Amino acid sequence: MTSTLDELPDTEREFIRRRLALVFQLRQHLTGYAFGETLPTASALAVALDVETRFISPALTHLDAEGALVYRGGNRAPGRSYRLRPGEQHPDDVAFDRDVRQKIASGHYRPGTPLPTQILADRHGLAPSKLPRASRWLIKDRLIAHREEGPLGPGLYVACQERPEGEALPA
Fold it and tell me: What is the value of pTM for the model shown?
């Protein structure tokens, strides 16, 4: 597996650089819209940024996957696309987050055990590419952690850290 851009062939490296530059440009452009405000269509954004429409959708998908916005374009669920506030959870992740928190609190998921991420993703209608976004608040609250080496290999595991006496699990 390739680990750095410099190890990729020139054409792939240039494609990735251009895509990241468009994501950056789009992120900057979208700061002109208020949090929660409905965003223009991919076609309208393409015109505003003077790029082909076919390049905007993947950039919007990238920003959705990182939790910067909710993107409801293309073949996705109906609804509006909009910017998320800093610290605001993506609406597609709420049920996943709640489910994992409840199962940790009840002891169903025990410290040190791997999370059944594929089962959880399927249950909550999340693509595997959305799991990092869906898990980020659980990781931030130290309920789960990504481990490169664990009993079942790399993945998300229930955190083993003990909480100070009287400290409740985050809601």
Answer: 0.80
